[in-house]
What does this fold into?
Amino acid sequence: MNHKTICLIAAALMVAGCAVTAEQVAAEKEAANSQAALGMMKTSFKTRGQASVDRLNQDETQALCSQYRDNPPKNIREKIEALNQTLTVFPADGKLLGDWKEGEKVAQSGVGKQFSDNPETPAGGNCYACHQLTKAEVSYGNIGPSLYNFGKVRGYAPEIAKYAYGKIYNAEAYSACSNMPRFGHSKILTEQQIKNVVALLMDPESPVNK
Amino acid sequence: MRSSFLISVGFAVILAATALPAASQSSDDTIKEIERYRAALADGNPAELWEARGEDLWKQTRGPKMASLEKCDIGLGAGIVKGAYAVLPKYFADADRVMDLETRLVHCMVNLQGFTPEQAKKDPFGGPSKKSDMEALVAYITGASRGVQMNVASNHPKEQEYYELGKKIFFHRGGPHDFSCANCHGADSQRIRLQDLPNLLKQPTAQRAYTSWPAYRVSQGELRSFQWRLFDCFRQQRFPELVFTSDASVALTMFLAKNANGGVLSAPSIKR
It folds into this structure.
C-alpha cells in the first residue's frame, strides 16, 4: 500500500466520521427540542376536570411516533408493534362478540375523556367520526377505512373476530403510529363495550353486514 | 335579528341536507349541500358587531392609567392597526418575547392602561352570560387586515425557536386517545363525520384555514379568536386546558401562521 492510498483511505474515513457526527448533532438537537417542547407544554396547560397535566407525558409508543412524525423506519415500526402486542389482553371468557345494537350506540357516541365530559358517563368509541359502518348513517368521517360489510367481506371466522377485537383494543399492535386510539389498552372502552363493537362488525345480523 | 335569521337559515339547510333519503344521496350531493349552506351564511356576517365594539374599546380611555390602546404597537409600530395581524406572531424587543395578537393586547393593556395581567386576561372567551372584550378587540384588529397577505418573519432566533417548538407540539401525541394535531390535520381531504379537516402542513390548505380565523361561529353565536380555536382543539384532543396566551399557544400559532405565509386574510369570517 503506497502512501497516496493510505492518505485517500484516511480522507475517506474522516468524511465518514464527519457524516456520522453531523447526524448525531441533528439527532441531539431533535432530542433537545423535544425536551424543550415538553417543558414549554408543562407550563402552558393546566389540569381541568378529568384531564390532568399528566396527559402531556408520553409512553414509549407516543414518544416514538411523535419523534418520527407518525412515519417511523421499519425497525422502529416493528418495535412499536411488538411492544403493543404484549400489551393486548383478550377476554378471559374467550367470547368476542357481544350485542351489535349496543355496539352501534358505542360507535355513534363521541362522549368521553374530554375535560368538558362528566367522568361518570361511559365513554363512546366515536367510530363514525372516522369510519363508514352502516348504510343508514351518512354522516361518517374518512380518516379510517370504510368498515361497511366488514364481516360479509372477510367471513365470520373466529380469527377475524379476534383480529377485530385486538385492533380495537390496541391498534398500535397491528399498525405502528396509527391514528386510531388504543380503546382497550387506554381504558377508553370496557371489555363489554369492545365485544359489542366487534358484534357490530361481525354479527351477520348487524346492519354493517346487510 | 339578523344573526337569529342566519341561524334559522343554517338549521333549515342542515335539516334539508339530513332529511334527504340516504340511499339516493351521494357524497357529492352532501358536499354541494354544505357549499350551499356556506354560501347562505356568507350573505351577512354578525362579526361586524364584534368589530365595531372592538374599535370602541381600542379608542376608549380605560384602566387605572386612563389611556386608550391607540399607542399600542401590535407589530408594525405604535398605533398602526391595518396590516399588523399579518405579521403576527413576532418577536417584540420591549417584552423580549414572541407574541401573538392576544398576548400583545394583554401586554398593552398592562403597560399602557395599567391593568393587572389577571384583569387583562379575564374573560378571554365570550359565553352566554358574558361578553369578552378580548374577542371584540381581536375582531377589530384582524378585520383591519382583511385583504392583506400573511407575512410572518423568522429573522430573530426566538422566532425560529418558537417555530421549531410549535412544530414539535403539533406532532406531540398524548392523552388517553394518543392524539396529536397531526392525526387530524396532517393529511389531505380528511373528515371527522362531515366536517372537513384542513391539512395544516401544506401551504394552500394551511393558508385557507389560517386566514379564515378568527370567525363568527353560527352554532355558538360567538366570535371566536385563534386562541379559542387552539383551546377547543386541545379539549377535543383530550388534553388538559391550554392556558390563554401561554408559550405553547404562541409557539403553535407561530408554526401555523408561518405555514400560511402568502395567504390573504379574510377574517373574521363566518363558520358553521
